[in-house]
Design a protein that fits this description.
The protein has 488 residues and is α+β, with helices and mostly antiparallel strands. It folds into 3 domains: 3-93, no CATH class; 100-200, no CATH class; 226-478, hpI Integrase, Chain A (Orthogonal Bundle), CATH 1.10.443. Helix content is 47%, strand content 11%. It has 17 helices and 12 strands. The strands form 4 sheets. A 5-stranded mixed sheet has the order 1-2-3-4-5. Strand 9 and strand 10 (387-393) form a beta hairpin. Helix 4 (105-119) runs antiparallel to helix 5, helix 8 (163-174) crosses helix 9 and helix 11 packs antiparallel against helix 13. The longest helix has 26 residues, at 435-460. Mean pLDDT is 82; it is low at 464-488.
Length: 488
């Protein structure tokens, strides 16, 4: 077999001048600067660069070398061969690494998912697996599912570092109002979990995700000002009047069920997804004279936290009891279609914010001075026909979770003790079986929930009467007389 001290451009050209007539032949590097195993495979019509494995039985092709190959290109090919040879040496020491050349990322995800369901799924929230399924099926598998573990590990570092940006771009193209940064970061986290699973199994040794930097995705820790709550209250009353005039189950008018659920989220600051929308009517309890929602599973279900309570004030309880439910329905917040639950509050909340912004602009114009308002700074979206568009391109994002942050800021002003505040928000909770705790401390927490609700309703304008103050007192002064709609 021919050997040369080093594969050069001249060697490649000589190989093209002497292409194989029948069986291919090989030209190996052999010398001080040679790469062990690096060789050219000369065929009838082309020349390939790569390495031989399994004692010469298998040819590992890296690339086809053109006759006009440059020095830089040839050196890059040689570096790739060096990496492949090192992988072969690792596989000789650890036979399980051979699985990386065969297994694709799609097969790795299936193996990891089966292991997760078998060992940990029963002790985790079902939503955890649903979220990971969504990340893999919507983003990771379409982009990288066809690659083997070895191919993914050998991707250029720059291409691996750009994974969060690529996924964020996919999200933004499908939903123009979403930046996709959180999704990109979640996908990297899901990929790291599966890759760590492969490392524990001995299928891979290299971690290409080690130096991937996550995108800057600050959490939406925004809260509503007092004037924002006044405008939200006016907008809610307007939407409730519109819903009362609309035909039942109409998709043109706002849903009465979603409006009532939004009020409960406003009063309590609960985690509206898992504690309200996914709740069951059987969770609603009123024994011990303590109206509450008993959530049977605490966030993460760690340690002795096996559940928590969402304490309700009088109007919050009324809202939940007023929600129309078909016969036999056990959903706390049913959807428009029988047998379904309300999926989210995003649409009704965004519609409320749009109406509240119109009210704030009218108040601002009447007063003649700028208002200190989070909603006026927000980026709000809506629909034009069937298309979802930006209505107001502000820089602030106000999700439904902002209601939870708002309640947290209002607790001290409403006179709620810090310990009660933590328990009302579910930061600290006793197990659902500890009825002694509920009997002793439940009434005081119920009173704290009612106190918070009354304070929020006063800021929203619900508790005002014609003989009472027409406007809430806020930091910048009073609103103009007559600007705040009266409660019915």
């Amino acid at each position: 077999m021919p050997t040369v001290p080093r594969l050069t451009v001249e060697v490649v050209r000589r190989c093209y001048s002497r292409l194989a007539t029948r069986s291919p032949y090989y030209v190996y590097e052999l010398g001080r600067d040679a790469i062990k195993g690096c060789a050219l495979r000369v065929l009838r019509r082309e020349v390939q660069i790569g390495a031989r494995a399994d004692r010469g039985k298998t040819w590992l092709k890296v690339s086809v070398v053109r006759p006009d190959v440059t020095f830089e290109e040839l050196e890059a090919f040689r570096s790739s061969v060096r990496r492949r040879v090192r992988e072969l040496e690792d596989e000789a020491l650890e036979p399980s690494l051979r699985e990386a050349r065969r297994m694709t990322l799609a097969e790795l995800w299936k193996a990891y998912r089966d292991d997760y369901v078998r060992r940990r799924h029963s002790r985790r929230s079902p939503r955890t697996l649903d979220q990971r399924d969504s990340l893999w099926n919507c983003h990771l598998l379409p982009l990288y599912g066809h690659l083997t573990l070895a191919e993914f590990a050998s991707l250029p570092p720059r291409q691996v570092e750009e994974i969060p940006q690529v996924i964020a771009g996919r999200v933004n193209r499908s939903r123009a109002w979403a930046e996709g940064r959180h999704t990109g970061n979640h996908c990297v986290a899901a990929l790291r979990m599966a890759w760590e699973f492969a490392r524990r199994r001995g299928w891979i040794a290299k971690d290409p995700l080690r130096d991937v930097d996550l995108l800057d995705a600050p959490s939406a820790k925004v809260y509503l000002e007092d004037i924002d709550l006044a405008a939200v209250g006016a907008a809610l009353r307007s939407l409730e009047e519109l819903a009362a005039r609309s035909v039942a189950c109409s998709r043109q008018g706002p849903s009465p069920t979603s409006l009532l659920a939004l009020r409960v989220a406003l009063y309590t600051g609960c985690r509206h997804g898992e504690e309200l929308l996914r709740g069951k009517l059987s969770w609603l309890r009123r024994d011990f004279s303590v109206p509450r929602i008993e959530v049977p599973r605490a966030k993460g279900d760690r340690g002795d936290r096996q559940g928590r309570f969402v304490y309700l004030g009088p109007d919050g309880l009324r809202c939940l009891l007023t929600i129309p439910r078909p016969g036999g329905c056990d959903d706390l917040v049913p959807g428009r279609v029988a047998g379904t639950q309300l999926a989210r509050l995003t649409e009704i909340w965004e519609r409320t914010l749009v109406e509240a912004r119109k009210i704030l602009l009218a108040w601002e114009a009447e007063q003649g001075t700028p208002l200190v308002s989070s909603i006026l700074k927000a980026r709000l979206v809506g629909y034009r026909g069937e298309t979802r568009v930006d209505l107001y391109a502000g820089g602030l994002r106000i999700p439904v979770k902002a209601l939870r942050h708002t309640i947290k800021t209002l607790h001290p002003r409403a006179g709620i003790a810090p310990d009660h505040s933590r328990q009302l928000l579910g930061h600290e909770a006793a197990g659902l079986g500890e009825r002694v705790y509920l009997h002793q401390h439940g009434p005081s927490l119920s009173q704290a929930a009612g106190k918070t609700e009354a304070y929020v309703r006063r800021l929203m304008g619900d508790a005002l009467t014609r003989s009472g103050p027409r406007t809430p007192q806020v930091a910048y002064g009073a609103l103009p007389r007559g600007s705040l709609p009266l409660a019915r």
